[in-house]
Amino acid sequence: MTSLAILSRVDHLVYATAELDRGSAEIEALLGIRAVPGGRHAAWGTCNALVGLGPRCYLEILAPDPDHSTGPAWRLFGLETLGASRLLTWAANSTGLEKLRDSAAGEGVALGDVLSGERQRPDGGVLRWTLTDPRRVLADGVVPFFIDWGQSPHPALFSPKGATLVSLQAEHPEAARVRGMLRTLDLELTVQDGPVPALLAAIDCPKGRVVLR
Question: What global pTM score does this model have?
């Protein structure tokens, strides 16, 4: 599977930032598209803004919710200790998450519990989904968590248009091991050897083709 073929499995990319307005401004400067507020995750103490990357694919700018009291929920993806904003991880689309989790566990890949999530959009609509535990960060975020939107409309439908994800690749100092984990999950993402873990997303947008990492 090439880096292009993996695109059908990318549900969204997670661009983590310490402050939502700052992260949104960074993405607007990079892509030339202004993100729209997505809403708040009350259970995790986070908030987000979105930019569409395709019909069922989007970029999530994720930050701590300043209106949420500090506590364990802020530890999602280590946002409370994040320095510079960066592309932190990604979500793969899937169904039958319990079966996937059990099968992966049998092969030594621990995706964690299957959880329920929800957030209220600014227009009052509520999105609900199930996902493998996003706190179980594997291979420094190169291995994704999995999400199933069920009957909820996909967030890409409500996200600004004008950008398209054209490839997703990764670098990791233990590339062979990470490729093995991804094969177990039927995700042949291209992973090259590199000094530090990194996701590299090539995006066509009003600023041309840019690489977000």
Answer: 0.94
